[in-house]
Amino acid sequence: MALEDFIDHTNLRPTATIADIQKLCEEAKSYNFYAVCVNGCYVPIAKEALKNTPVKVAAVIGFPLGAMSTKAKVFEAADCIGNGADEIDMVINIGWLKSKLYDTVREEIKAIKEAIGNNMLKVIIETCYLTEEEKEKACALAIEGQADFVKTSTGFGTGGATFEDVRLMKKIVGGKAKIKASGGVKDKETALKYIEMGVSRIGTSSGPNLIT
User: Fold this and answer.
1) What is the pLDDT of residue 34?
2) Cβ-count burial of 212 within 10 angstroms (0-12 exposed, 13-18 middle, 19+ buried)?
3) Is residue 151 annotated as part of the catalytic site, yes or no?
C-alpha cells in the first residue's frame, strides 16, 4: 500500500469554514487519500464533495473532550452515519476512565458501535492525559467494546502521537484492533515510521506535505 492509502486528511479546527472543508475534500481526491475527517456538521458537505470517489468520510463525536453523556454520543454517531459518514472517531470519557468506571467506559463504546453497525469505529484514548496503566486499560476496553481501531489523540490535547504510545497500544491490541496515529504527524519520515510499526491509519492535517 502507498502512503496515501493510510491517510485520514483532517480539518477539525473550530474556525474551519465550508470553503476549508471543500478544499480538504478536493485535496483528498487529488492525492487519493483514504478518508477525510471532519466535525459532524460538515459530513453532508464532505459527502457531496466526495461523491463518486473512493474517499471515505470519517466524523468525530464527543469531540474533543469526550465528556458528554453516552446518550448524546450515541445520537451524534447515528446522526453522522445517517448523514453519510462511513466511519466514526469517538473520544472516550477520560474522567470515567480515571475514575475506574471501566464497565461504563466499555458499555459506552459498545453502545456507539451498535448504533453504527458495520461502519468503522475508532476510539480516541487521548494518551497525553493517561498513565501507562490507563493507556493499557483504555485499549483493552476498546477491544471489549468491539471497536475496530484505537487512536492516540484528538490533536487538541497537550500532546499527540508518540512512537512509545504506539508500541504500547500494539502490545495490548495485538491483532484484535487496528491503530490510528493522530496528533502532530507532520512529515513523511514520521508517518512512514508509524506504518512500519504497524499503524493502519494516520490522522493528519498535513496530508499533502506527507506525500510531496
Assistant:
1) 98
2) exposed
3) yes
In the set 73, 122, 137, 151, the catalytic residue is 151
In whole angstroms, give the CA distance from residue 17 to residue 129: 29
- At 212 the pLDDT is 80
CA separation, residue 208 to residues 9, 24, 31, 125, 143 (Å) = 9, 10, 7, 26, 32
- In angstroms, the CA 173 to CA 122 distance is 13
Q: Which three cell numbers stand for residue 198?
A: 504497524
Of 143, 136, 121, give the one whose Cα is nearest residue 76.
121
The conformation of residue 184, written as its DSSP 8-state character, comes to S
Query: Of the residues 89, 113, 122, 178, which is catalytic?
Result: 89
Residue 73 annotated in active site: no
Chain length of the chain: 212
Rounded Cα distance between 21 and 18, Å, is 5
Q: CA triplet 147, 148, 153: central angle to 5 degrees?
A: 80
Low-confidence ranges of the chain (pLDDT < 70): none
